[in-house]
Amino acid sequence: MLLEEEKIFYLSRLLSQFGELKRKNHFGGFCLLVDDAIVGLVLDGCFYLRGCLVARSHFEASGFNRLVYSKKGIPLEMRYYLLSEQVWHDESLFLQYIELAYRSAIEELKQKQSMTMRIKDLPNMNMSVERALGKIGVSHVDELRMMGAKACFMKLKKHGRNNPSIKLLIGLAAAIEGCHSAVLPKDIKQELIAWYNSFELTSV
């Protein structure tokens, strides 16, 4: 049994405010995803918000009950929380909880992607650049993002790869942005070129 049609429409309207809404069959019900991050679950006529990272402590502090799912007769506590009727009748409050669930889910998704994706898999990157970055202590995507293109470039020039080019600098900046260097905004490219030229002059 699914949620009543009115509630499903209401729920879809609220969730759609945060991004592209999708459904995916899960646990005999279906998950609701916003921008490919799982935000909630509809199961046995009830809606549960997913509580990961900071959302979990907030939902528990609010007194929401966790979903207990029975698998082969063994009860398992899931990271999904049942909303009270009070929340359903307060749209402003409902949106606050949805936003918390959404932002936590997006952050968790980003963390997982950073852990599993290798530098060579980023746009503009390859095995050679990955090896060169590894030699200066940048082995993971999150380390590259944290250090930034300019700092990585300086370390490569000082300790690693010989004479890194402006093309590599722009490629690193674009990789951090998640795009090909050809579509990196013009103003960012110009700033990088100006920085590269001044850096080359000071290091002569």
Can you describe what's shown?
The chain has 204 residues and is of the alpha+beta class. The chain folds into 2 domains: 5-115, 2-Layer Sandwich (Yope Regulator, Chain: A), CATH 3.30.1460; 119-202, DNA polymerase, domain 1 (Orthogonal Bundle). The protein has 9 helices and 6 strands; from the N terminus they run αββββαββααααααα. The protein has helices at 5-15, 54-61, 85-88, 91-116, 127-135, 141-147, 149-159, 166-177, 186-202, and strands spanning 21-26, 29-34, 37-43, 46-50, 65-71, 74-82. It has a 6-stranded antiparallel sheet with strand order 1-2-3-4-6-5. Strand 2 (29-34) and strand 3 form a beta hairpin. It is elongated and about 65 Å long. The termini are far apart.
Keywords:
single chain, 204 residues, alpha+beta, Yope Regulator, Chain: A, DNA polymerase, domain 1, 2 domains, six-stranded antiparallel β-sheet, 9 helices, 6 strands, 51% helix
CATH class of the largest domain: Alpha Beta
Secondary structure: helix percent? 40-55%
**Count of helical regions:** 9
When the domains are counted, the total is 2
Task: Report the principal-axis shape.
Answer: elongated
Number of strands: 6
User: What's the CATH architecture of the largest domain?
Assistant: 2-Layer Sandwich
CATH superfamily of the largest domain: YgaC/TfoX-N like chaperone
Ends: how far apart?
Answer: 73 Å
Which residues form runs of ≥5 with pLDDT under 50?
none
Overall pLDDT confidence:
88
The major pleated sheet works out as:
6 strands, antiparallel
